[in-house]
Amino acid sequence: MTHAIKDVIKEKFPILYEEELVNDIQQNGKLLNFEAGDRLIEIGAYIKQMPLLIKGSLKISREDKDGNELLLYYLNSGETCAMSLTCCMGDVRSNIRATAIEDVEIIMLPTSKMDEWMKKYDSWKNFIFRAYQIRFDEMLQTIDSIAFMKMDERLERYLSERSKELNAKILNLTHQEIASDLNTSREVVSRLLKQLEKLGRIKLHRFKIEIISLV
DNA sequence: ACATTAATTGTGT
DNA sequence: ACACAATTAATGT
User: Fold this and answer.
1) CA–C1' gap, A6 and B9, in angstroms
2) What CA–CA distances, in Å, run from A18 to A6, A55, A93?
């Protein structure tokens, strides 16, 4: 039983307060569901829709020249993908990939409306600017964690961020996944995780990591 | 309940 | 980074 898009917007995107805008979204938006593992956006594809994430979370990544997957950031409910905006403005192919890491519910909006809404609705404009700003801040943090932090600190930060975002104490991740997100080897991750477990900050299980207490 | 297999995780070099 | 061992979960018999 799906509720009206209108209600969902009011609940998850209170920042979009203009009644008329909400109606517009209701009219033009499509409510879609994806399962964990599905790819919503593939590298090289044209983007004609822009997502508003209602439930679940997405992993946004790109590929380097050797075909390695490189993590950009995670998207959670109440957020949107800033990259898909830049793509859809020009008639450009996507340079990112979006993969569902949990079951996901999203509203897809036709990019054709974006221009019009930017001019027409203040709250929409603010929303978009804010999405950019949040993403930008996060990327800055990521950059200096790569530049200045040692792997053990990066791992710890990674875990506490993920647990905060998903707001879950149990993360369903393999060591290999973490390793490719952090661009290191699986063995290093295993060893560092082991240390954290010894310190009593996490507990290790197969396929999952239980967070006990992280900074 | 047991054996087989595949994948994850652990460890030494 | 590589190689191999140990452990675990899933599946079939």
Assistant:
1) 46
2) 11, 22, 31
